[in-house]
Amino acid sequence: MFFLTTAIDYTNGSPHIGHAYEKVLSDVIARYRRLHGDEVYFLSGVDQHGQKVQQTAEKEGVHPATFVKRTTKKFSNLWDKLDVRYDGWAETTDERHKACVRAILTELKDQGQLYKKAHSGFYSVRQEQFLQDRDRDEAGNFGPEWGEVVEIEEENWYFKLSEHTDWLKNFLETTPEVIIPGFRKSELLNALERNSGIDLCISRPKERLRWGIEFPFDEHYVTYVWFDALINYVSFAGYKAAEGSGLPDFSNVWPEGSRPVHVIGKDILIPAHGIYWFCMLHAMGFSDDSMPRLLVHGFWNGLGGDKMSKSLGNIVDPNELAEKFGVEAIRYYLVRDIVTGRDSNFDVERLVMLFNTELANELGNLCNRALNMSQNFTGGTLHTGGGLTDEETALQASLTQSIADYRRAMDEFEVAKGLEAISRHVVHCNGYTERMKPWELKKDPANAPRVQTVLYHLAESLAQCAILLSPVLPQAAAKIAAQLRRDDLLSMKLDDLKWGLLSDGHEIGKPKPVFPRIVLEEA
Ligand code: MSP
Mean pLDDT by 10-residue block, N- to C-terminus, for the chain (523 residues)? Predict the structure, then answer.
């Protein structure tokens, strides 16, 4: 089983292009793994508790439950629109999740992993956490990233994080590929060094925060939002679920010795996923072999290259974009113009340029030529044709190479590289057409077998490229398969991709444009 999760989005606002990227990237990975032949369980969802939600709901004068219901819809509607197809949907106000969080808290307390103590110190309202001296800037102040900072004293519950950090350090140092890309691992190890000896405060007194999961053994407290949220990865996979809960079987989704992939942004690696979550799982008794892999992606910056923020007014709205350019243009751009793990600047002109060049021109051209010329020159019937020349040998070799490059890249979550590999073959096919000039060849009836060979090579290439593209562009791939009159192509697996998917004598359909060029209106 390939168990894939995304971060669960805060429901105190609306989704932006950064959230959309993470979901589309994960959806592409899920679809690719299926194409690879894996059974996949793809979990996504929303983070509905915490101080920010409570505050925003108060400002709007509604109960937090009503508020999160409304905002959750904004997220789930967008994922439907963007064709993000998850198998499980996590909402942290779900009673089944709450029961799981309580069961874990009770178990950890019984094992002596939790304790209560009084603490006085500085608290960041925005980050919902106590601050340490190491959080001060060079001038000794708490910087603007912490928002409002207040001094408070209170009693709270703590998780003995410090008992697990030596194990974590050793685990990270000795286990390859749990943090992807690898350069993030050194950042994490440095952070771990700074964090050593500190336990994690996992409760909030109800006077300060009501909107959370009540402690099972101390009714005056609710659970710290990160402790609650991280547990979604197991609760919605059926961990400690009651009979008939409707949740999956945990031993099937996350069997002992398997590593799920958590797709997260770079801002929530440290400390939440890279430190807290690993230590929580360790305390819960998960073995080293069952620790998840963290796929840490970079950020999409807003227009102008700055971090997206309300105050800069540069937030890119995925709904607007999808309406303007179409869902598949957005999906394509989001995974095409960023290196997984690195940041990128959102740029509408590049979106249009990449779509028009790689899809409308190159792939669109291949579709049109393969289908149109077959209709016009061979009556819509494909024939494998006459003897092969070096040109056909080279074309078939180009396809084999592209598939190998694509698989290598996609196995490592490098979607942009995977797409480039497909493009290389499409460009090869268009060059081949230009050199072979079937429109000239067909003027002499003696060349009929040659024309058939050329058109067959284009159609077969198109069929295979449609399959490779299907994780990113499911709708376009389905249209191409339908025009080739081979809807079944999209249920094939990667290992089935051998030359000759289209048989001799196969009748193809009529071409209809799959990638109409995007024309930007003059401003
Ligand atoms: N609720 C927490 C995650 C809990 S996971 C147990 C959270 N939510 S969030 O809404 O702020 O962010 C959700 C995801 O979107 C995170 O992985 C975050 O890194 C990602 N992104 C937020 N802004 C982004 C960009 N500008 N670009 C790419 N991803 C971004 O954190």
Answer: 98 95 98 98 98 93 97 98 98 98 98 96 83 90 93 95 98 97 96 91 93 98 98 98 97 98 98 98 98 98 82 87 96 98 95 97 96 96 91 98 98 98 98 98 96 97 98 98 98 97 97 93 62
Residues 207-266 pLDDT 10s: 989 999 999 999 999 999 999 999 999 999 999 999 999 999 999 999 999 999 999 999
Measure the CA–CA gap between 290 and 334, rounded to whole angstroms: 31
Give the Å distance between the CA of 296 and the centre of ligand 1: 11
Could you tell me the two tokens for 187? 């950042």
Closest C-alpha to ligand 1, atom 16:
265
Q: Is the pTM of this model over 0.90?
A: yes
Residue 522: predicted pLDDT: 61
Helix, strand counts (H, E) of the chain: 20, 16
Please tell me the residue having the least CA distance from ligand 1 atom 20: 265
Residue type, 485: R
What are the φ and ψ backbone dihedral angles of 252, each rounded to 5 degrees? -90, -40
Cα of 461 vs centre of ligand 1, distance in Å, is: 38
Give the 3-state secondary structure of 281-314.
HHHCCCCHHHCCEEEEECCEECHHHCCCCCCCCC
Q: 9: Cβ below 6 Å to ligand 1?
A: yes
CA 299 to ligand 1 centroid distance, Å = 9
What does the domain layout of the chain look like in residue ranges? Answer: 347-496
Residue nearest atom 18 in ligand 1 by C-alpha distance = 265
Closest CA to 425 of 353, 356, 358: 358
- Is the C-beta atom of 306 inside 6 A of ligand 1? no
Question: What kind and span of H or E run contains 263?
Answer: strand 261-265
Ligand 1 centroid vs 275 CA: distance in angstroms? 17
Side-chain half-sphere CA neighbours of 155 within 13 A: 6
Q: Helix crossing, 415-436 with 390-411: angle to 10°? A: 170
Looking at every residue in the chain, the average pLDDT score rounds to 96
CATH 1.10.730.10 for domain 347-496, yes or no, is: yes
* Alpha-carbon span 315 to 15, nearest angstrom: 10
CA-nearest of 362, 345, 299, 316 to 17 is 316
Strand ranges inside 328-413, DSSP E: 344-345
Which numbered atom of ligand 1 lies nearest the CA of 265?
19
User: Residue by residue, what is the 3-state secondary structure of 122-159?
Assistant: EEECCCCEECCHHHECCCCCECHHHCCEEEEEEEEEEE
**Ligand 1 neighbour 2 (Cβ under 6 A):** no
Q: Which amino acid is at 285?
A: G
